[in-house]
Every structure is written in structure tokens, then in C-alpha cells.
Amino acid sequence: MNPSLLHTPIDYLKGIGPNRAEILRKEIGVHTYGDLLNFFPNRYLDKTRFYKIGQLERNSSEVQVVGKIVHLRTVEQKKGKRLVADFVDDTGKMELVWFRGQKWIRENLKLNTPYVIFGKTSWYNGLFSMPHPEMELVEDYKKNLRTAMQPVYPSTERLGKAGITNRVFSRCVQQLFLEGGNKFIDPLPQDIIEELHLLPKAEALFNAHFPKSQELLSKAQFRLKFEELFYIQLQLLIKNLIRKKKIKGFPFEEVGSHFSEFYENHLPFELTNAQKRVIREIRKDLGSGAQMNRLLQGDVGSGKTIVALMSVLLALDNGFQACLMAPTEILATQHFNGISELVTNLGISVKLLTGSTKTSERKEIHAALENGELHLLIGTHALLEEKVKFQNLGLAIIDEQHRFGVAQRARLWKKNHLPPHVLVMTATPIPRTLAMSLYGDLDISVIDELPPGRKEIKTVHRYDSNRLKVFAFIRDEIRKGRQVYIVYPLIQESETMDYKDLMDGYESIAREFPMPEFQISILHGQMKPADKDYEMDRFVKGETQIMVATTVIEVGVNVPNASVMIIESAERFGLSQLHQLRGRVGRGAEQSFCILMTGHKLSNDSKTRLETMVRTADGFEIAEVDLKLRGPGDLMGTQQSGVLNLKIADIVKDNDILKTARHYALQVLKEDPGLEQEKNKVVKYTYSQLVKEKNIWNYIS
């Protein structure tokens, strides 16, 4: 299809006109012929054939099956019940599910009698299921076959009111294929198409809109998803290559006395193999002459801070200063205290700069930074202020980087004439698929090993009815000299939700653990900073045995003597939050425990979250489950990244395709970094269009 035809405004397509075009633009972002072509059906009606259960494929189409109901049961759920039928044919079993009208349905269904069912299948727990199927007894079934599978397009109320029905969509797309003559430049290299047995572009597009069979639909979707993800990965990889070529970095060629002295004489413990590997990766970057831009992922307690400190020592050995920026004062202070203690005997000047730093102190810090006396500055957003000027900033470390905006991070770059090397750290494990899409242009290091001697935290799920046993367990732990966190999800009582709120919880804990035998701290977001610090300080010093808190303690509190974490109404928390909270204990040598308290009524998602927490302490596995439950948008706010405005691929469901696409994009760039070879001309052209348009889907021609 002529590329210019795809850029034609949608107003000119037969059957649209200016009024409908305006609605299409506002409602679904369809501006051009190309936008319409890439506005894919979200399901398909297929009454052309009957499927055996064993032939069903995991794609979003509707199918027709003949079989019998052999068993009916009612299943309790969080709100109400659902009716589930086991439906079988001679190739397998699937489930039919009803969430409403169950009494009438149960009375009218016939067991062991042949039915024709029609509906949309989904794959869950190793079985296909079909909610609210259309059903008819085989003997009553009147065959009313259609000539092909019918696409069903996403719609809105306004589109329906404007008469832009599904039939109108179908007709318009057919018109597009007629006008374009069904000819497309294929944007993928021929060798990749052959190696992966991909459908040609024209055939894939046609079968995504008007599939001739289930098999062709699956092949068409695979081809288009691969292409979309291939170009996203290509963009990210090229961005990384360009940055390494264009953005010169300060070469840290020396491994000098600071690094060696610390490594040989002051390292408080043996580094894990994962830490050694990551330090090697960072050293290689720092010595390359290109600017480092690396993401360091490591679970809570995996030892990222030591890696960060050793990177700082490399900067100092090469005559540069460094800074470490954290999102909260608590976390910045913790980094400052920990690092100051580690470098006591190395003659290194370290200062802390936060919103609470007094003016006189600030002036001293500013002066020492500019004359080079200050080697390492640790702080919060205060580091970004205009007044903060370094003599020679060579390394900027950003902790919990997802809490800082892109613009804020960019301000650190401008603190030297060449951008400093950047190391961003996160204790929130990011699933590999998401990391490859969101941070595909960064080099990624992972610390996937906990320091030796760390005991795994024992995690259990207990119902409210077991509360007295839990209280007895808390008493035993306190008598052993340990401390306990009790975390609540709400600060004030909510009339609509029957959950424990913090103040109510505090009172019941105070009754159960009375003074003077027990001392209790309380911490929540509505307290003044000074009061928070006072309460936290009492707990850190061991003056109080129990800390009743909200999720304020999620990040940055380090109390090695705290060995028990009780999470009230645990079903109210997301998985990553539960995992972060659990990471507040298990920091000392004693066995630690995490107890997840809930009521008896739990949704399926809540059960999955709790079972995952009890089963594993692996942050990356937890992040994968979280991604499946919540989707990428919720997990990372991915829409802000711009690059993930996907039309057909789904980075959760299609992670295997994503890995394949990245592999091939890497292969292409390894063989031909400038995309100069004849076979890659089409890739170069498509990539240039993509960059020009800044929209992943405007490149198709």
C-alpha cells in the first residue's frame, strides 16, 4: 500500500465523512487510514464451524462447541456465588460459568444431553472456561452459518450513538483494503520472516481483520505482535548505542587506594558472587569512556548499598565527587549513617543534605562542594537545587528511581560539563519483560543472591479467628528481647469498609499489651515530621517493643532487632507492598516472621497474593505474579513512558514474543549497527519513519 495513502485523513474514506471522522478522532484516536488499519478487533464471532475442546487455541475469539454438561456446582466468591458446569466432549473438559440468573439456569439445564454452546473462551488454571455462553440443545439447533469469522471492534457509547456500528467499521476496513490494493511494503527483513515462518504483512493484516480460520488468526496476531515488539526493542537498543557513542563519559581508569583499602581492610563481610559480578559490570562501564546509564535491581537486603559505595570509591580514586539521592529523608539519613560508618577510617568527607538541613550547615556544604573538599553528598530532592554546585561530579546514584520524574533526574546531568555516570537503584524487583520494555535503553544489573547467613523470613497466613494465638506468639518473641511491627492499611475508620483502622488497632494492642510491661510506638503519615522521628527513634533504640504503623515504614527503616511483621487486613495490600513490608524484618541474625492477617472472605486475587507471599521470598517471582494480576499500567504507570502505547501486543501475555523480538533486534544490530546492509534497508526506512513520527504505529506502510 502506498505509504502516503496511509497518512490520508480518515475524513476521505468512503462511508466516513467529516462528522464521523471528528468522533473517531476524539473517541478512539483514529486520525488516518493507517490508524484505522491498526485499530484491531478485540474478539471474533465464529459460527462457521464447530470446535472440539482439545482444538481450542488461547486467543481472544468466540467459538462454537458441541458437548454435554456432566456436573453442576455452586462456588462461593467474595460477592455472592457463581454457578459452574463441567462441559465435556470426547477430547476434553471445559467449564461454563454464570454469575447471574443462576436459579433459572440451574432449573433449565439438562445433564448428559448434547448442547451447542457459543461464546468467548478464556484460559484459567489449566482449563478453558466460557462465561454466560449462548446455549441450545442440539436437536433444536437451527444451522445459520455465516461465510466467515466476523470481527468485533472495541466501541464506545458515543460511537454507537453516531451510527458507527461494528458493521460500519468492518465495511470501512474492507474499503481500505479495496483502495490500497492489499499491497504493503513488509517492514521486516526477509531472513527473519523465513526463519520464524511469519505470514507476509498483507496477509497478516487481512487475517487480523477478516480471519479465514482460527489458525490464520493466531498466525496473523503472532506476526503483528512480533513486528510491534521488534521495533520497540530496536528503538530502545539503538537509543542505548547512540548514547554510548555520542555521550562521552569521564573515564575512570584508576582503581586506586580508596577502593583497594576499603575492599581489603574495611569490607564488613564477604561479597556475594552476584555483588562481585555487578561491580565488574559497573567497573567496565566506568572505564569505557562512554557515559554509564545502568539500572541496579536487587531485592530488599541484597546489598545494593555496598555496590553503590564501591562505585563511589572508584569515582573518588579518579579525582571526582559523587552524590546519592534518595526519595525520603528517612532513607537518605539511613544511607548517610550506614555509609559514614563504613568509610570512617578512609579520610572521606560525607555530608547529608535534606529539606531539614539548617541554613548555616547548607552554606558550609555548598562551599565544600564547590572547592572539592566534600567527596560524597547524600540527600533528597534538595540535591537538585540550583545552589548545589559540584566542583567535579563524576557519579550520580539515584535510589528507588521510580519515585523521581525524568525531568528531576535530568537536572543531575547538568551538574557537570559532561554528564556524570548514572547508577539508578531499585529494591522493587521489576519483571524481566517489563524491564526490557521500560528500561530497554539502560544496561541492567541484577543482584539475585542474598548475603550468606540471612535466614529466610517465615511467612504465614492467619485468619482473624486465630488472633489470640498470634498475640501469644508476639508475647513470646518480646520476652526473647525481639521487637514487633504491626501494620494497618487505613488511618481513619471507613464507613463502607469493614477493615481494622489504625487507631482502633492501637487501642486493642494497648489493652492486650499494657504498660509498664510493654511500650508501644505509633507512626502514620498525618503526624508531624518531628513526632515521627521521635517515635521511630524510640523504636530503633529499643525503648518500645511494638511499632503500630501504616505503610510509612514500607521504605527505609532498618531495625535489626525487629523480628516480627504483622500485616493487618493483608488482602488490602498489593503484592509488591506486602513484599516491601516483609523486608523490614529479617535484617538481624535471628529467625524472623511475617504474619498476614485477614478475614475469611477473600477474592481470588487476594488468595493468589497471599499464597504467593507464603510460598516464595523471591522478589522477581513475586513481581511476575503482580504483573499478571495488575497489568503493566497499574504496576509502573507505563503509559507515561510513551513507548508502550501498544495496539496489539500485550507485554504480560506476550512475554515470550517480546523475548524473541529482542533477540532478533539485538542480532540485527550486532551484525549491522548502522543498518546499512541491503537486507536491512527496509528496517532502516521503517525505523527512520518511526523516530520521525514518534509514534510506534505510524511507521507501517
Automatic annotation (TrEMBL):
Keywords for this entry?
Answer: ATP-binding, DNA damage, DNA recombination, DNA repair, DNA-binding, Helicase, Hydrolase, Isomerase, Nucleotide-binding
Q: Which GO terms describe its molecular function?
A: DNA helicase activity; hydrolase activity
Source domain of life is Bacteria
Domain Helicase ATP-binding, residue spans: 285-447
Is Cytoplasm a UniProt keyword of this protein? no
Can you give the residue ranges of the Helicase C-terminal domain? 466-633
Which reaction is recorded as catalysed by this protein? Couples ATP hydrolysis with the unwinding of duplex DNA by translocating in the 3'-5' direction; ATP + H2O = ADP + phosphate + H(+)
Write the Enzyme Commission number(s) for this entry.
Answer: 5.6.2.4
Class of this enzyme = isomerase
According to its UniProt entry, the function of this protein is described as: Plays a critical role in recombination and DNA repair. Helps process Holliday junction intermediates to mature products by catalyzing branch migration. Has replication fork regression activity, unwinds stalled or blocked replication forks to make a HJ that can be resolved. Has a DNA unwinding activity characteristic of a DNA helicase with 3'-5' polarity.
- Identify its protein family: Belongs to the helicase family. RecG subfamily.
Q: What is this protein called?
A: ATP-dependent DNA helicase RecG
> Gene name?
recG
